[in-house]
Fold this protein.
Amino acid sequence: MPDTLNAAIVGCGSIASVHAALIGSMDGVRLAACADIAEDMAVRLADKYDAAAYRSLDDMLAHEAIDVLHICTPHALHVPMAEEAVARGIKVFTEKPPVISREQWARFSDLNSSVGVCFQNRYNKNIRYVKQLLDTGAVGRVTGVRAAVAWYRDASYYQNSGWRGTWALEGGGVLINQAIHTLDLLVMLLGPHTGVDTYMANRQLQGVIEVEDTVDARIAFGDAVGLFTATNAYSTSAPVQIRIDCEQAALTVEDNRLAIFWRSGRVERIAFEQPDALGKDYWGSGHAACIADYYRAMKQGEPAPIGIRGVEATVMLMLDMYDQGRRWLK
């Protein structure tokens, strides 16, 4: 690997600014180029980091020597752009979701171990502490889990994007775009699902979007019962809430806090220090750790820390939920 890695970003919307800021803050990495079909957006982002701007991925890859490509485009483009980069020997770090369909998953799963996925909430300190408690058996067997995502998206969020709210380009609604991070945390903590029953609805924006703004599911993780609810039809974007019921304690997670309600009656409340969130508060603050860990692995010749195999169980659960839930939207 070269001493300094040349990174590039394709797709220069709001999340790209987070990637660019973190690339610009790391030693041994430089942002070399940005690309977007809206050239003014590429120029605006590139100018902040003395990078080159292009109107297309193909043009950028034809003119720049890129080591790592960050994919921040509409969801349907993640797989074909990852394929193009990998075919050129370029490493890939893609925003979620990695795929929007089973056909895309079949292609994505054939890519190499340097492909990383941005599930940054896995790096939240409270989640990692909960994972340790579960793995060591300190709280006993998990009996149930419930998670709630209550956010708000208005009509302009979809109408001004040119791609959101469509099956073809977004691949779904609240589940695949916003709540996938919370779904991923449930899989990280409890393992692959063994069953799921899903309901979906468009409660707020009929005639504006094709996809769901609300999802409700009962998920089996072995013997543990999971209840999962998510909506973009709330009044604001509230903190995500997760509760895990175990034999010895109940664990509740919200923002950077963790509460442990022991069956003995003792209560522990822990507030974890987290770096300030980049971009929107509800994106969390894990991007810095997630992206830094990816580059550490690439420099050391290791597989991506959150790679293809590491996201398979989350993708399979999401796709199963859409297989069941889409029928309610017809």
